[in-house]
Design a protein that fits this description.
The protein is built from 25 helices and 26 strands. By secondary structure, it is an alpha+beta fold.
Length: 722
């Protein structure tokens, strides 16, 4: 029994995913090295590495590979590792559940900085000693080269044993050792110094990119004012529980996702949604953690725990997006896997062929071959795409544009047609009743029947009818057997009658084409209004007209897309006249009276001609969002907006679609610049090396310098938006 319990416990433990923080993992090359090493260990599965957040997730069978061996393997590769299975949000806001690592040490306190400082000191002392004692000469620089060789060489050997023989560390170590052998000690010391400086700068730049996302976590205040009756006491915001009521004073940050239960105010939600204008809030309004209360005091009920608030979920989804590889990045990784061995082969041929075939000087061509090794390092090339993708995704998240992966970011910029749902996307999604046309009975009878059917529904038309009933003081009638007929009507049994609230087409099928006033319906629809017909036992009771106004920024958003060369199409289930009236005001093409399956057919037809994106509310447009090349959800931070489609506009702004396209195109342009710079520098230094014009220290600068330039260029995207 005891043995069985132990086996069961071990099995349970092996099924639980482990999470580690891996310090020093600052680039895609680091990820590839660690992945290669871990794949060679037995009992490890579901490996997920993210160098942006410096996290490692995996499943481990400790009977096959103990944790100590796993952690030791990563340490031998030159990285720090610590368990991070149970990180929780803490009051000072410096750690957040499973979404952000603890605050990083400043760059000058890292092991890379200490190593760089030591080598710099040894190089300076070496030059000083050679100046004071000329007889010593360049040999005074040997200690600096040996220290660097000891650190990077040991790491190169560990990487070779772990399955990565063609690492940058191996290339640099061979070049340094070769320089020492042929007596170029000064060159050897400068090579290790520049390599150490390059690694340090790479870490600094990676930390700068991570800070863009970590800044989101800092938006949540450390404390909240919890209400207990009329008394308020300060508690850590991380300890708030669902259902508790908190006080948010003017000037305070909202401590949690919640709902206003008392008060009115304007809340600046720009840090979360990118909405530049403060949003009015009243009883029943949703508020997001991190927003800034501007004018009046609010009492709000907490609707989500700290680990599940909007900011926490945004950070989690963005980190998942950053971990996913874009098609361009995957191509470059495959190219680099073949490129580095080719560089080694070319370098070897450069060393051997001229002396053996033409009697050239060995030392000269060994020197040039070693320089080629350093020039061929692929770090800058491998980093060119993920650095730009990371910055692009982070820039979008900080402006309320949530992009779920590099593939989506690439695809958005290629679209030439964007299809919009109407209700809740191009329009505000809050229609209001404008006209009541009773055909039998009074206005109150008409509203009473409609409200009884629609009571309990979340459909925009249902909400509009119920709002009008409440305003007019019409009592709600009891109803039973309520159900919806998709795309046609809602129905229920009211006062013993089958009452239906549906489209004019459905009413005509029920009552006959001449039983309803087609001319009156046409006039209302020409005004951009949606008309529903209330039918009781196949007899028309009356017409209800509603109008849903376009979003304030819809026309500007469509104009911005037109300026980017993108055609906009509105797909709606509404009637043709209403759709055309809204479309004329916005300047878009329209396809109306579409059932959900019709939208799918329209998307497929347009997709065959050009890449297409679909923009919807993320709820009833799910199939169309999935069918398009890119699905974009309008959601204001709702669960659906964060979990559906390829991107989400948290600010509910139509102009955000143009911002997405502009950001995608800027990111792709940045990638092309990075690749051109990485390959261009290498091409120039390749020629100069073969001509004998490039020293070893310039060769390492070709890679280190290119890496830094590529990273800094990618960081420019953090300021990018249309």
């Amino acid at each position: 029994m005891l043995d069985g319990a132990i086996i069961e416990e071990a099995t349970e433990r092996s099924d639980q995913p482990l999470r580690y923080l891996v310090s020093g993992m600052d680039c895609p090359s680091c990820v590839a090295k660690i992945e290669m090493a871990l794949h060679r260990l037995p009992g490890i599965a579901d490996i997920s590495l993210n160098y942006h957040s410096q996290t490692l997730r995996l499943k481990l069978d400790e009977a096959a590979t103990p944790r100590e061996k796993l952690e030791g393997t990563i340490r031998t590769l030159g990285y720090g590792i610590e368990v991070a299975d149970n990180i929780q949000i803490i009051p000072d806001g410096q750690a957040a559940d499973d979404i952000s690592a603890p605050a990083e040490r400043p760059w000058w306190a890292t092991s890379k900085a200490r190593l760089t400082g030591l080598i710099t000191l040894l190089v300076a002392l070496g030059y000083l000693a050679s100046w004071l004692t000329p007889a010593v000469g360049d040999y005074a620089l040997v200690p600096a080269a040996l220290v660097g060789l000891a650190v990077f060489g040991r790491r190169a050997v560990a990487l070779a044993r772990a399955g990565s023989p063609f690492s940058i560390e191996m290339l640099m170590s061979v070049a340094t050792l070769g320089a020492l052998v042929i007596g170029e000690t000064a060159e050897a010391s400068i090579v290790v110094l520049l390599f150490a400086v390059g690694e340090l700068l790479e870490g600094v730049a990676a930390g700068r990119a991570r800070s863009g996302i970590k800044a989101l976590a800092a938006l949540v205040p450390r404390t909240a004012l919890l209400l207990d009756g009329e008394d308020a006491r300060e508690i850590p915001a991380a300890r708030l529980e669902i259902g508790q009521v908190v006080l948010v004073r003017p000037g305070d940050r909202v401590p949690a996702d919640g709902e206003v239960v008392e008060g009115q105010s304007d809340v600046d939600e720009s840090p979360v949604t990118g909405e530049s204008v403060p949003v009015p809030k009243e009883v029943g309004s949703a508020v997001f953690a991190g927003g800034i209360n501007a004018t009046g005091a609010l009492r709000m009920r907490v609707m989500r725990a700290a680990a599940d608030n909007t900011i926490a979920r945004i950070i989690h989804l963005v980190e998942e997006a950053q971990a996913s590889k874009a098609p361009t990045a995957r191509f470059i990784e495959r190219f680099s896997a073949r490129y580095t061995p080719m560089v080694v082969m070319v370098s070897l041929l450069t060393i051997l062929v001229p002396p053996l075939a033409f009697g050239a000087d060995w030392q000269t061509w060994i020197y040039r071959g070693l320089a080629l090794l350093l020039i061929g390092c692929p770090c800058a090339l491998v980093l060119s795409t993920p650095a730009a993708i990371t910055s692009g995704i982070a820039a979008g998240a900080r402006r309320g544009l949530l992009i779920k992966g590099g593939a989506a970011l690439e695809a958005i910029g290629r679209v030439r047609v964007i299809a919009f749902d109407k209700t809740g996307t191009l329009t505000q999604g809050r229609p209001q009743v404008t006209d009541l046309v009773p055909l039998s009975g009074s206005d109150r009878t008409l509203l009473g029947f409609a409200a009884a059917v629609e009571n309990g529904s979340s459909h925009p038309i249902a909400r509009a009818v119920l709002d009008r009933v409440s305003a007019d003081g019409v009592p709600l009638r009891p109803a039973r057997d309520q159900k919806a007929v998709p795309g046609k009507a809602a129905q229920a049994i009211v006062a013993g009658k089958l009452v239906e609230v549906g489209s004019p087409r459905h009413a005509a099928e029920r009552c006959g084409p001449y039983a309803i006033p087609a001319d009156r319906i046409a006039a209302l629809e020409d005004d951009g209004k949606t008309v529903v017909v209330v039918v009781a036992d196949a007899r028309p009771v009356g017409l209800i007209a509603l109008r849903d106004e376009p979003r304030p920024d819809a026309a500007q958003g469509i104009t911005a897309l037109r300026g980017l060369g993108i055609r906009s199409v509105m797909l709606t289930g509404d009637n043709r006249r209403t759709g055309q009236a809204i479309a004329r005001g916005l300047g878009v093409d329209v396809k109306a009276e579409l059932m959900p399956e019709d939208k799918l057919r329209e998307i497929a037809a347009m997709k065959s001609g050009a890449p297409i994106a679909m923009v919807g509310d993320g709820i009833n447009d799910g199939p169309a969002l999935a069918a398009a090349d890119v699905g974009i959800a309008m959601g204001g931070g709702t669960d659906v907006a964060l979990e559906t489609a390829d991107a989400a506009l948290l600010g509910n702004r139509v102009e955000g679609v143009a911002d997405l396209v502009a950001l995608s195109r800027a990111t792709m342009a940045n990638i092309h610049q990075n690749v051109a710079m990485a390959l261009g520098l290498k091409a120039v230094f390749l020629v100069t090396t073969l001509l004998g014009l490039t020293d070893l220290w310039l060769a390492i600068l070709a890679d280190t310098g290119a890496t830094v330039i590529v990273t800094l260029n990618a960081l420019r995207l953090l300021r990018q938006v249309r």
